[in-house]
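Hi P.,

Sorry for the delay on this. The queue was packed all week, but I finally got your sequence through. Input first:
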Amino acid sequence: MTQRFADTQACDCRHSRRAFLSDMGMGFTGLALGAMLADDGILRSAEITASSLASSPLPSLPLGPRAKSVIWIFLSGGYSHVETFDPKPALNQYAGMTFDKTPFENPANSPLHKKRFRSVAAEEINVRDVYPTIYPMQVGWRKHGDSGIEITDWWPHLAKQVDELCFVRNMWTTDNDHAAENQIHTGRHRLDEQQPSVGAWAHYGLGTLNDNLPKFAVLGGPTRSDTRLSIDSLYLGPQHAGVPLALDPKNPLPFGQRHAGQSLEEQRLEYELIGKLNALTAVEYPQDQELLARIRAYELAFRMQAAVPEAIDFTQETETTTKLYGIDNETTKVAGQRLLAARRLVERGVRFVQVFPSPYGVWDSHQKLKDNHTRLCGTVDLPVAGLIQDLKQRGLLDETLVVFCTEFGRTPGLELRGGGKDGRDHHPNGFTIWMAGAGLKQGYVHGETDELGYHALGEGHYVTDLHATVLHLLGLDNRRLEIPGRKRLEIDHGQVIHDILA
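Then the structure:
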């Protein structure tokens, strides 16, 4: 009799514990409640528990956000900083000389080189970044705008927007190969444990502004399978990863297309049944991140079927606007379409839009730099300038942050590998990015490289300083973006670049 009572007690305990966990936020109903609380900004970081974290983490409340959304433009391959946004007359003055023949300190001997540079190849066999013969600039330059900022002649349209831009000329990173494409998005060298991308952290920390669109959308990328990390969320859970969108209004979401002959109502009922089955499983396995992500994916995919095609439908735009982005020209069409789509997405409440206006690695100019950069600048100059102008005239630049970056710069010295005679190699030691929009100084230059464009001077800014600044403008403190059991390193947090803040 006593044993039967004990068995009954144990059975009741098991069922009530499961029900309790479900009711307290680890089941499907709790997921929806947690998401709504997070989106409304009700959860506090100090109040986050393991159960609330499993449902909808919000590790930091907005700290007086200046920006609502981010358009992050990435040019794959590494554009030459000295032939774009950081012109160096000394390269022409001392062209053909070796570093040690100039009046400047030999940058290859600088302690900054060993402090920042981390080659995968053994140092004694690595020849990259230390080419000794100075290669002259391949393009002219001049000052533009009221701010008098120098930009090269390959950017005639963007130069007209220079008084809206904020340049950071002392960026640096550590990987001297194209894994740096992931590094500028994740903050980690490829030899280290990888971290979630900056877009995933923004997704993780912010509520949505539109329940029918993803918080983190990706246009034109990832550029190939081994750059998936640049939009990935890793241990944050798959629900925080970037959602690639195709710019085809008839099929922007191949994974969400209805089967031929299936009506919208039939699909809705199908998703509803799947949702109920997943909900039952979620009660049994409340910590299964893949399952939780799948539940949200089904719900979001159904809602996105109507919202996404409308968001990328350019027939709603005027001819003047499409020309502003260069969509009427084959040279600028691809970049123009992706950047116009980015504007339409942030206009509809998407928090983070990551845009790859060019294919993988095309800015990688080991040879024929002049031909390569002349052509490539022509593909993005007008569309990017058009984006800035369009955001401004619509009043969106006051609440949107635009980031324009690449994975590293290019060497001041002539690349000699393979009989090179007209190109530059990868250069992580110093390069330039720019930003524009919400919360930033306008027509401003922060930091510098040395006379030859080799090293970022002073402390410079490692790539996670850029992350910290972007997240700060969104109202998030990068140092509070941690989850239990995943200690981030000091380098992951970065430092906000306060000098560029308005």
